Structures
1.
Amino acid sequence: MTTTIRSVTINPTDTITTHALNAASIGADIAAAIGCGMFDVVGLQDDIDLFVDDEGLINGSTLNLPATVLAHLLGRPTVIFGTAVAVRVTPDGETVGLTDAQLARIQESLAQKPDAGTVDALVESLSPFPTVVSMLRNI
């Protein structure tokens, strides 16, 4: 019996897709979904982990503004490049499928306009990208 892990893939183009990853090959499945050789984990609130391309910045991957906004909204002000995959993590550090509540939190976070405090944090994090900062100041 194959155990699947419900995840959400967040592309830089604002495309959000729910996928089932194979628990037996989770590392390979995440790397394939992200399109990278090495990935890193960004721990967010509510036991949500965001897997991202560890070399996204240096390999020319596109800025992932939706994942960057999500990370800021869920307590981790970081800038993300390339595709990201969101999953749930247990207290023991095991990667498991997102719950309905976590999936809803991700979808709601990505659908809302960031509050002023989040926009300020985004402006600071994205200061090396003046075009993006200009867009954020206009929302």
2.
Amino acid sequence: MTENIGRQLKIASTQLTKQFDKFAIQYDLTSMQMSVIDFLTLFKDQEMFQKDIEREFNIRRSTASTLLKRMEDKGLVRRVESNKDARQKQVILTDLAVQYEDDIQKFMVETQQQIHSFLSDEEYAALESSLDKIIKHMGD
């Protein structure tokens, strides 16, 4: 049997995305919109910009722009003038998105705990380290 780590990573990613989508649908969100809400929640004390979302999720500017436009249309985020640089627009969560914060963060923690539950501490640490290396070396 031939090893195919790329195929296994793709399958694992697809399974995780399906699990995220299954949770997100109850809020009329996509898994990616849910992940952006989670990301912005984690950094709510900082100004966050589209470029930060692009970097965090390793997505193109056009993809991030479309994602944020759809989130604006759903009333989940707003782009407002930066407090530090009037030429830039920070991305902030609306009251609607803030209502979802706790549930999303709880889901994210539970998902991480679920993954950790079938791996030893050493396996979990090795997986995290390995994924970090793959992301770093296989990136654009």
